Amino acid sequence: MKVPLLDLKKQYISIRDEVLKATKQIYDKQQFVLGPEVERLEKEIADYCSVKHSVGVSSGTDALIIALMAAGIGQGDSVITSAYTFFATAGSIARMGAKPIFADIDSDTYNVSPEGIENIIEKMTDAELENLKAVIPVHLFGQCCEMDSILKIANKYNLIVIEDAAQAIGAEYKGKRSGSMGDFGCFSFFPSKNLGAFGDGGIVTTNSDKMYDKLCALRIHGAIGDRYDHQIIGGNFRLDALQAAIVLIKLRYLDTWSNARLSNANKYRKLFINAGMEDIIKLPVERENRHVYNQFVIRVKEKRDKLHLFLKDYSIGTQIYYPSPLHLLNCFSYLNYNKGDMSAAESASLNTLALPIYPELTYDQLEYVVDKITEFLNK
User: Fold this and answer.
1) What is the DSSP letter of 73?
2) d(CA 2, CA 189)
3) For 87, phi and psi rounded to 5 degrees?
4) pLDDT at 223
5) Are strands 160-164 and 184-188 parallel, antiparallel or unpaired?
6) Where would I find the beta strands (DSSP E) of the chain?
7) Could you tell me the maximum CA-CA distance found in the chain, to the nearest angstrom?
8) Contacts of 242 (CB under 8 A, 6+ apart)
9) Is residue 337 classed as helix, strand or coil in its secondary structure?
10) Euclidean distance between CA atoms 81 and 361, whole angstroms
11) N- to C-terminal Cα distance for the chain?
12) Per-block average pLDDT, block size 10, for the chain (379 residues)?
């Protein structure tokens, strides 16, 4: 039996006719950048995320970059974020000329620890505090961070909050949607995301009229009003109409797909418990009231890499998110972090493994995955 980590072909088959109809209309109109499809998507995403505005951009990474630009963060500034996430979060900070400061994670949810953030801030000198401008909590694997505590810290130290919600569209924290709690929310439409395009794409949410106007200008090289009236320096962060049209179609199915992911997660949980694996495997912790499971990540006490290869031999797709925490990457060696500085993030990098969780999985496939993991760990 084959169980890929993700099977987008099955999803495409279910919406193929709608996609071909919508994209044909764009071919006929020959308007490929921004335009009515993007405007409609922005309105529908804003409604879905319970925010006032959203601005379509060219990728999830560019969503982070343009949010940092709108917040005025640049050379000499510093931004706190998680040590355990995809590179783009910290890479975007560094690209702005700012300094990433890494905080350790909660070992249960893998999200950045509010206590870790506050401990870092409390040890800062007055000069370091003056340079600290923002915090980027990452809603990792589909579950929101502990936002009440993070927002309390941000308010105390007058910090901008940029939610990296690339993996968590539709996730909720105490009834509030991801991307609606901070100053900005940044989402990715990369194909592997719960709401994916047929290429790159992203969107930024905000409740600020001022920041909305600035984001709109920044994505078209800082032009305000006339296309050649560049009041500020921006970039080319525009979203393609084709990607917007495809995401609009998928948005109609997103809640159904998210519920299917949750159902698969519950089936995994029961299968692992029935196999007697609950003391050998640490299953995902659902701390918040709507986890959308962009990834289903287990933790094994030992032999994670051998398990990864074993499952590959049986045609089961898995992935290691992430093989190195950010503070130990060579490109951030100038920040002078050492092994042992972020113990929870380092442990997660050594022991976690993501299993297939996409909506179209069958029960037989889920059972096959659990059977093979059980077989390996019982050896």
Assistant:
1) -
2) 26
3) -55, -35
4) 80
5) parallel
6) 53-57, 78-82, 99-103, 132-136, 160-164, 172-173, 176-177, 184-188, 202-206, 281-282, 296-300, 352-355
7) 69
8) 23, 26, 32, 37, 198
9) coil
10) 33
11) 21
12) 96 95 90 88 98 98 98 97 98 98 97 97 95 98 98 98 98 97 98 96 98 95 79 91 96 98 98 93 92 98 95 98 97 97 97 98 98 94
Give the pLDDT confidence score for residue 149 in this predicted structure: 98
* Percent helix, percent strand, percent coil in the chain, to nearest 5: 45, 15, 40
Q: How far apart are CA 203 and CA 182, in angstroms?
A: 15
What whole-number distance in Å separates Cα of residue 66 and Cα of residue 233?
11
Inter-residue contact 156 to 84 (CB < 8 Å)? no
Nearest to 88 by CA among 136, 134, 146: 136
Residue at token pair 């106007």 = 213
The torsion angles phi and psi of 349, rounded to 5 degrees, stand at: -65, -30
Cα-Cα-Cα-Cα torsion 356, 360, 362, 366, nearest 10 degrees, comes to 10
Per-residue tokens: 56: 């379509």
- Residue 56 carries which side chain, given as an amino acid letter? G
In the chain, what are the domains?
Answer: 8-251 (3.40.640.10), 254-377 (3.90.1150.10)
The secondary structure of residue 36, as a DSSP letter, is H
What span, in angstroms and rounded, lies between the C-alpha atoms of 342 and 103?
A: 7
From CA 212, how far away is CA 289, in angstroms rounded? 29
Among the listed residues 107, 99, 38, 110, the one whose alpha carbon sits nearest the alpha carbon of residue 74: 99
Instruction: Give the separation between CA 204 and CA 66, rounded to whole angstroms.
Output: 8
* CB contact at 8 A, 185 and 51: yes
Asked if residue 68 lies in contact with residue 92, where contact means CB atoms within 8 angstroms, the answer is yes
Residue 76 vs residues 79, 97, 177: alpha-carbon distances, Å: 10, 7, 32
